[in-house]
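Lab notebook, design round three. We kept the backbone fixed and only want residue identities now. Task for the bench partner: fill in a sequence for the structure below.
Input structure tokens:
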């Protein structure tokens, strides 16, 4: 996060906001700056990528599903806008620790090939480490003692849109993001890679709420995509994973997505639409027969 803050200080905070007497390494100044940068970045990421997904990926036929709520998109956005600032407070405390040198983040790749090999391994390690922790945190949030107060707000959206991706209770949102912040305090990670992965996992979070259930056949057994996560919203006790199906299979909570079996929400909407069409056609046919004299009154 120091890369972002240094750029923000150089181009904005130092010349335009803070007095010259307030040094850039002052902890109170850094806290304020991180709160501003974190919230601004979160809103930009959310609105930019969720909007793109909503208009260019999301299948709007899902909005005809009976479990799609009235004014749902508006409610998802309002919920997110209200939650993000609260999520940012504990997040900034961890960013501050990174900034003050308590993490294992580094900025020198090192010699080729060992430095690059280490970098690639760290990316794979980050994905599998965070996927494991998120699975257990997410599953724990479904426990009856905490679900109603913390995680239930995210399950209001049975048929989610991309705008539901960050519509969490603040405690829920922070807990599920915690593995991303824990990793660089335990394992070495390049600063640019960390920042890139942090952006990508937020985009991924949007993507598993985008209603696009198409997954290459070869990846279906391994990747936890939108089809899996939509079933999680609908059926509650399945598919807790973030990127992969591994921990759901280990934990016995894997469910083959209903969309892959022709029983998903889009299939339901299609069937419902066809039934209405057939019913209208049948009613139209009856009216036509009535006016043509085929139906006569009997005594």
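Proposed sequence:
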């Amino acid at each position: 996060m120091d890369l972002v803050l240094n750029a923000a200080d150089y181009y904005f905070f130092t010349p335009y906001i803070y007095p010259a007497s307030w040094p850039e390494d002052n902890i109170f100044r850094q806290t304020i700056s991180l709160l501003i940068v974190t919230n601004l970045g979160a809103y930009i990421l959310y609105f930019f990528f969720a909007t793109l997904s909503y208009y260019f990926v999301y299948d709007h036929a899902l909005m005809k599903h009976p479990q799609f709520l009235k004014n749902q998109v508006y409610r998802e956005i309002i919920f997110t806008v209200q939650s993000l600032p609260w999520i940012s407070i504990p997040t900034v405390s961890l960013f501050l620790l990174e900034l003050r040198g308590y993490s294992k983040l580094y900025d020198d790749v090192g010699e080729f090939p060992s430095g690059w090999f280490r970098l690639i391994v760290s990316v794979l390690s980050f994905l599998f480490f965070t996927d494991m922790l998120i699975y257990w945190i997410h599953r724990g949030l479904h426990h009856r003692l905490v679900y109603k107060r913390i995680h239930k707000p995210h399950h209001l959206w049975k048929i989610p849109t991309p705008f539901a991706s960050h519509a969490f209770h603040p405690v829920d949102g922070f807990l599920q993001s915690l593995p991303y912040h824990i990793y660089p305090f335990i394992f070495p990670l390049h600063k640019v890679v960390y920042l890139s992965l942090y952006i990508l996992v937020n985009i991924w979070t949007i993507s598993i709420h985008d209603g696009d259930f198409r997954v290459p056949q070869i990846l279906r057994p391994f990747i936890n995509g939108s089809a899996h996560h939509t079933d999680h919203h609908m059926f509650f006790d399945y598919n807790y994973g973030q990127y992969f199906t591994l921990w759901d299979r280990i934990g016995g909570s894997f469910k083959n997505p209903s969309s892959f079996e022709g029983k998903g929400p889009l299939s339901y909407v299609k069937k419902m639409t066809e039934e209405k069409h057939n019913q209208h056609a049948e009613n139209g046919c009856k009216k036509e027969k009535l006016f043509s004299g085929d139906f006569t009154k009997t005594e």
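Keep this in mind before ordering anything: The mean pLDDT is 90.
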